[in-house]
Design a protein that fits this description.
The protein has 251 residues and is an alpha/beta fold. The protein has a single domain, classed as Rossmann fold, CATH 3.40.50.720. The chain contains nine helices and seven strands, in the order βαβαβαβααβαβαβαα. Keywords: Oxidoreductase.
Length: 251
């Protein structure tokens, strides 16, 4: 069960090798979390991540999970929830893609969309139903400021995150009053392996900063968290710029 400050004893990470997710897991283990499930494609990286978290004192399990195989989600995730209550689910998987390649190769673009949106809808609904059956728990969804307004430079990724963001907000409304809390996290540019080599955007942040914001959001039972917080104002301005002006911006 979560404590009075909303921090979980048990955590399920969907996207078990995500740097942001692992930074969040480390922070929560340092506070209160004792059981962690890392769900992802079987790999040395997944096992290494599990070993690192075990070194912090957590009881860590790995489970084979593929966002691109929605037909397996009910069975795979159902087995996790059958082992005991899960206080928090962190939906952290996603693909950035390569905009230029994805425009040339529609199937590559479809893979981004299916991972970031379709896979997340499937896994999110399966977990939400299980959390609702428990009568408690948090579903934390890693969205992105890229979903606020699609940019020429990454509109395929941005559109998939826009869909995920809208889905998570709607799911939060649907679960209101059930004991299940949905929190959408909107980071800006995060310095990770996924963004290595890309030009760094203003207000860039780190996985550890996102983890700190997630903890604070859980304590406050926030519904939306911006990282860093200043992006909320920046994106509000960009969202309302006339389209002709927005097109001329170096974004």
């Amino acid at each position: 069960m979560k404590d009075a400050f909303g921090l979980p004893q048990s955590l399920l990470v969907l996207g078990g090798t995500s740097e942001i997710a692992l930074a969040t897991a480390r922070r929560l283990i340092a506070r209160r979390t004792r059981t962690v499930w890392l769900a992802g494609r079987p790999s040395p990286a997944l096992e290494e991540a599990a070993g690192q978290l075990r070194g912090l004192g957590a009881d860590v399990h790995t489970v084979a999970f593929d966002a691109l195989d929605p037909a397996s989600h009910e069975a795979v995730l159902g087995k996790v929830f059958a082992e005991g209550d899960i206080d928090m689910v962190l939906l952290a998987f996603g693909l950035l893609g390569d905009q230029a390649r994805d425009e040339r190769e529609p199937q590559a673009a479809v893979r981004v969309a299916q991972t970031n949106y379709t896979g997340a809808v499937s896994a999110g609904l399966v977990c939400a139903r299980s959390l609702q059956s428990q009568g408690h728990g948090s579903l934390v969804v890693l969205s992105s400021v890229a979903g606020e307004r699609a940019r020429r430079a990454n509109f395929i990724y941005g559109s998939s995150k826009a869909g995920l963001d809208a889905f998570a907000q709607g799911l939060g409304d649907a679960l209101h009053g059930t004991g299940v809390h949905v929190m959408v996290v909107r980071p800006g540019f995060v310095r990770t392996r996924m963004t290595a080599g890309l030009p760094e955007a203003p207000l860039a942040t780190t996985p550890e900063a996102v983890a700190t914001a997630v903890e604070l959001g859980l304590r406050r039972r926030s519904e939306t968290v911006w990282v860093p917080g200043a992006l909320r104002v920046v994106m509000a301005a960009l969202r309302h710029l006339p389209r002709g002006v927005f097109r001329r911006l170096p974004v």
